[in-house]
Amino acid sequence: MKNRLKVLRAERDLTQAQLADLLNVSRQTINAIEKGKFDPSLPLAFKAARLFGLSIEDIFEDEVVE
Amino acid sequence: MKNRLKVLRAERDLTQAQLADLLNVSRQTINAIEKGKFDPSLPLAFKAARLFGLSIEDIFEDEVVE
DNA sequence: TCTTTATGTCAAGTAAGCTTTACTTAAAGA
DNA sequence: TCTTTAAGTAAAGCTTACTTGACATAAAGA
After folding, report:
1. Class for domain B2-57, per CATH?
2. pLDDT tens, B1-54?
3. Which of A56, B11, B31, B58 is the one with CA 20 to 30 A from A7?
4. Domain boundaries, chain B
């Protein structure tokens, strides 16, 4: 699943570590999500959406499977 | 995390098993999510939103942790 | 050059999402 | 009463999300 975290971070001048702190996850988790290694949990997606003042759909892009 | 799956199902006259099929998960998964046993993954939340023609935020309600 | 900061990655472990199988209960119809 | 259907639940196992700790690299500044 694609996401706009890197850009949203850049717009706010946040490092991966700072974003991780704000979302109460590890830096490695942010890195892995940005790199597409895995998808965030739904609660984490909600947290990120709230933090950035956006909807989940604005941040994460679902690829339609079929 | 609260959700409106049961009501959305009822509005469309779907059983848990039918919804499970439509979302490609097991009936037990739907039951567990409806009963609040665990949260769906983000991909599953996207699927449900697409199926019902709603946003994730319309279906799942995040409780603000702090 | 030396140090610091940000990012990337890996390995091992825990926790949560999800599966299959199976049993139980309640409601409704024949 | 017997059967069927929907819902609830539980155990065991697999997969994925996430953790901590560690190491590597590149860029930038003193």
Report:
1. mainly alpha
2. 999 999 999 999 999 999 999 999 999 999 999 999 999 999 999 999 999 999
3. B58
4. 2-57
Residue A1 near residue A39, CB atoms below 8 Å = yes
Superfamily of domain A2-53: lambda repressor-like DNA-binding domains (1.10.260.40)
Predicted confidence at residue B66, as pLDDT, reads 44
Integer Cα distance of A30 and A51 in angstroms: 14
Report the C-alpha gap between A42 and A4 in whole angstroms. Answer: 16
A-B contacts (CB, under 8 Å) = 49
Chain B residues within an 8 Å CB radius of A65: 47
List of protein residues whose beta carbon is under 7 A from strand C: A 9, 15-17, 27-28, 31-32, 34-35, 41-43; B 24-26, 28-29, 32-33, 38-41, 43-44
| Tens digit of each residue's pLDDT (9 = 90 or more) over A5-61 | 999 999 999 999 999 999 999 999 999 999 999 999 999 999 999 999 999 999 999
